[in-house]
């Protein structure tokens, strides 16, 4: 593990507010996303994400790696989501059923986890793009703007917007998202995605 | 949810960055071959529409909505960790006539008027009167400002260490420390304004036991921050709103700008103004967010409910519910900024919460919380033992050591 991470965990343990901010900035949004995928309710999801950080602060566990801390946050959020779903279903089922049946499929949870983690990764990668591409890519992918809106917002020429967007997305190397052993149908989807990018 | 899912996700991230070794490539391939679910999740992100939808969703979560709440929990934890094991302390034998007075007050069930005690500070010199040696060491009133600014890169600027003049530069904005300790953000007009699209945030934190700090933001608005409070603000405002976040207590004199309303966000309550003077008291431990208007107009909203205030009115938010308070004692609300406490028929806990913030002490109650009410306007420049005289004379026993005040019981 990087020296930086060890130092970060040490400071967090001591109650350093800057270290806490850093961890919070890294994980709050993806944990909101993860919880909302399970609960399909944004306000509840934000509450659960916040409570996960409350538990982190109150328990203040010892972590050897930043990955352990991440697991702790996701696991705490997952358990809270399951509790929430159980309490929502309580009036429909007997206690026996509640205890024996998980209210949400493990598949849903795992998929939510992968999606949340990768989205946050891409979100942060966009911020690392060279400045000239970053703004356009951000407006296009994160703020969901059409090319014309970006032209209006930035004052750049239409062709420049297209070029910056295409170049920026190429730098993100998202094409690598698909696996090498990919099926022909999926490959078609990806190719159409890529060609769309290079308009 | 097993660790392998995390491992797989981390491999995908490193693949996108081009950091995978050949053997890790094989590992990822075999993991993906085993998990149709992971393949599906990853392939879905290859679809631009799904990717955009996800990124927009992610971006929409407000990082600031609950940050202050979490910070408060962190501060509480730090405070709790600084406890020391108390030593035995001898309580003084109180003079009898004080005792009688206290008993009379208690029996009659009336509030204890400590007003005259508080107001005659000359009567209580800083040196300890005979017989009150239970206070191991006095805690002086805050004599300087110990505020710090967290800059956009996460580094911290300690204002008490900084000399006067320019102390930092943030996104073309100079941070100046004036001779009187005031902090000003000065926008360099020469800097190109189009370069600035994203907001760059700084956070001013004024800890407990620190003097009130006065700051002028880049738009010319003035903010005074009480002890135990924080303010998060963009170094330079842009867009259609001027939005800042606070915890604790602050007084604002907002410069007029009809085009960009000034918005104060405080733990879910939003205060919107155009240009005006108002005070916000939002200490977590008080349980109520009080917005008091002195001049102009403000709109306070919470959970869809709205209150428009006229000068002299207050909006009180408790447990998510807004209530209007029509008759407000402005002298009381503004006492902190004018250098005094102002207690008007309040219980000992209310008095000591405010005292704790100002002197940066911890207050614990060893037994039943003493009854009785206090009234008075003591100066904030008194030392802690001078303030505690009143508590002592009301018959409450306590001990003070290592900045920890333990209230023992009624006398």
UniProtKB/TrEMBL annotation, chain A:
Keywords: Sigma factor, Transcription, Transcription regulation. Residues 24-90 form the RNA polymerase sigma-70 region domain. It comes from the Bacteria. It holds the Pfam family Sigma70_r2. The keyword Chloroplast does not apply. Belongs to the sigma-70 factor family. ECF subfamily. This is Sigma-70 family RNA polymerase sigma factor. It comes from Flavihumibacter fluminis.
TrEMBL record, chain B:
Residues 341-407 form the Protein FecR C-terminal domain. InterPro entries: FecR (IPR006860), FecR_C (IPR032508), Ferrdict_sens_TM (IPR012373). Keywords: Membrane, Transmembrane, Transmembrane helix. Gene3D superfamilies: 2.60.120.1440, 3.55.50.30. Residues 213-299 form the FecR protein domain. The chain crosses the membrane at residues 101-118. PANTHER family: PERIPLASMIC SIGNAL SENSOR AND SIGMA FACTOR ACTIVATOR FECR-RELATED, PROTEIN FECR. This is FecR domain-containing protein.
């Amino acid at each position: 593990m990087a020296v930086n991470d060890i130092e970060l965990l040490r400071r967090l343990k001591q109650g350093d507010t800057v270290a806490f901010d850093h961890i919070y900035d890294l994980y709050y949004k993806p944990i909101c996303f993860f919880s909302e995928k399970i609960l399909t309710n944004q306000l509840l999801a934000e509450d659960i994400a916040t409570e996960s950080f409350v538990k982190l602060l109150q328990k203040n566990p010892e972590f050897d790696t930043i990955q352990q801390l991440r697991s702790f946050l996701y696991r705490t959020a997952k358990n809270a989501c399951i509790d929430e779903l159980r309490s929502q279903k309580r009036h429909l089922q007997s206690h026996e059923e509640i205890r024996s049946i998980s209210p949400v499929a493990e598949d849903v949870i795992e998929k939510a986890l992968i999606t949340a983690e990768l989205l946050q990764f891409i979100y942060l990668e966009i911020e690392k793009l060279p400045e000239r591409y970053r703004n356009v890519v951000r407006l296009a992918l994160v703020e969901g703007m059409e090319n014309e809106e970006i032209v209006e917002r930035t004052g750049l020429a239409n062709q420049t917007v297209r070029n910056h967007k295409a170049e920026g997305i190429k730098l993100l190397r998202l094409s690598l998202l698909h696996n090498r052993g990919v099926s022909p149908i999926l490959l078609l989807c990806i190719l159409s995605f890529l060609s769309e990018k290079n308009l | 949810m097993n660790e392998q899912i995390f491992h797989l996700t981390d491999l995908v991230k490193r693949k996108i960055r081009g950091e995978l070794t050949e053997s890790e490539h094989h590992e990822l391939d075999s993991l993906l071959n085993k998990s149709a679910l992971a393949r599906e999740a990853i392939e879905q992100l290859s679809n631009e529409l799904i990717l955009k939808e996800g990124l927009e969703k992610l971006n929409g979560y407000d990082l600031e909505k609950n940050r202050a709440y979490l910070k408060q929990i962190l501060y509480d934890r730090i405070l709790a960790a600084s406890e020391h094991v108390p030593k035995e302390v001898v309580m003084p034998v109180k003079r009898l006539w004080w005792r009688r007075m206290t008993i009379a007050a208690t029996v009659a069930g009336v509030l204890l008027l400590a007003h005259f005690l508080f107001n005659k500070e000359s009567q209580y010199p800083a040196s300890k009167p005979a017989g009150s040696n239970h206070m191991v060491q006095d805690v002086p009133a805050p004599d300087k400002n110990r505020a710090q600014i967290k800059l956009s890169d996460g580094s911290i600027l300690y204002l008490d260490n900084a000399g006067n003049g320019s102390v930092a530069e943030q996104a073309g904005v100079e941070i100046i420390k004036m001779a009187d300790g005031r902090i000003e953000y000065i926008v360099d007009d020469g800097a190109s304004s189009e370069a600035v699209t994203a907001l760059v945030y700084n956070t001013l934190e004024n800890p407990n036991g620190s003097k009130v700090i006065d700051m002028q933001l880049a738009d010319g608005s003035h903010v005074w921050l009480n002890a135990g409070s924080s303010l998060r603000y963009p170094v330079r405002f842009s867009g259609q709103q001027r939005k800042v976040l606070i915890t604790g207590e602050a007084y604002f004199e907002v410069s007029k700008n009809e085009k960009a309303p000034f918005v104060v966000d405080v733990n879910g309550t939003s205060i919107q103004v155009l240009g005006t003077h108002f005070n916000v008291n939002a200490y977590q431990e008080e349980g109520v967010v009080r917005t008091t208007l002195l001049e102009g107009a403000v709109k306070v909203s919470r959970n869809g409910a709205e209150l428009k205030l006229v000068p002299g009115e207050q909006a009180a938010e408790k447990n998510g519910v807004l209530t209007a308070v029509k008759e407000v004692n402005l002298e009381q609300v503004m006492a902190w900024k004018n250098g005094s406490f102002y207690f008007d028929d309040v219980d000992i806990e209310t008095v000591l919460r405010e005292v704790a913030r100002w002197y940066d002490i911890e207050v614990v109650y060893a037994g039943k919380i003493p009854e009785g009410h206090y009234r008075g306007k003591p100066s904030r420049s008194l030392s802690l033992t001078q303030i505690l005289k009143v508590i002592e004379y009301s018959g409450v026993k306590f001990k003070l050591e290592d900045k920890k005040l333990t209230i023992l019981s009624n006398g």
